[in-house]
Specification:
single chain, Rossmann fold, 6 strands
């Protein structure tokens, strides 16, 4: 920031907010599990993003492969569309993971998908904030993510989720495995994340912080 902003000490961050009400009435139905024939003994790990280079979905696939090869029982969902789809499908096919890693394409039922999800995983190389993480928080889901861009401002390691270095499939897989095997920790992180969201990342919080900033500028 210091290299591109003349007075960085004057900069103030107002985070984007999400509409928590969009998710409050949505309950787990099992429809995702039914639609894609997910075995009952498999948990559901989801990422929602464009299938683009900066989202690094190939690391998502590599992480899923490591989890599955270590005995983790999960089905992994990539929800979204983009120019990297063919490369992702090729990798999945080469590894014989067509039943374990599902590309849903673009969907309009994100609240329902998240309600049926057990764990959210983001593997981006580059992020601004990463608002899909906030959607996961709104569903009180535990999050495993790479420390890209503004993600650590939301995912505080060990508090509201678990962080790994960008591109580190080994670290991501370790975190995923630790949560798949620990329901109490998944619930703890999910509750912490939901409470953090309600305090810092709702639309109301965004409006209040923006208004306060304008009032401060006017007073000056």
């Amino acid at each position: 920031m210091a290299a591109s902003v003349r007075f960085p000490d004057r900069c103030v961050t107002v985070h984007s907010g999400v509409d928590v009400g969009r998710f409050s009435q949505t309950k787990e139905t099992g429809s995702l599990r039914q639609e894609f024939d997910v075995p009952e003994d498999c948990q559901i790990v989801t990422n929602i993003s464009a299938l683009s280079d900066e989202k690094d979905c190939l690391t998502f696939v590599r992480t899923a492969e490591k989890v599955l090869n270590t005995g983790g029982k999960a089905t992994f969902f990539l929800v979204g569309e983009g120019q990297e789809r063919q490369a992702i499908e090729t990798r999945i096919r080469q590894k014989g993971l067509e039943r374990d890693i599902v590309l849903t394409g673009f969907r309009h039922d994100i609240p329902e998908i998240l309600a049926d999800t057990d764990l959210f995983m983001m593997t981006s190389r580059i992020e601004g904030l990463g608002s899909s993480v906030l959607d996961a928080f709104a569903n009180r889901l535990p999050v495993v993510a790479t420390a890209a861009g503004g993600v650590p401002e939301m995912v505080r390691h060990g508090e509201t989720g678990l962080l790994a270095p960008v591109g580190d499939a080994d670290a991501l897989a370790k975190h995923v495995l630790s949560l798949l095997g620990n329901g109490a920790e998944r619930q703890r992180l999910g509750e912490k994340a939901g409470n953090f969201l309600e305090k810092e990342f709702t639309k109301g919080a965004m409006v209040e912080k923006t208004l306060a900033l304008y009032q401060e500028v006017v007073r000056e």
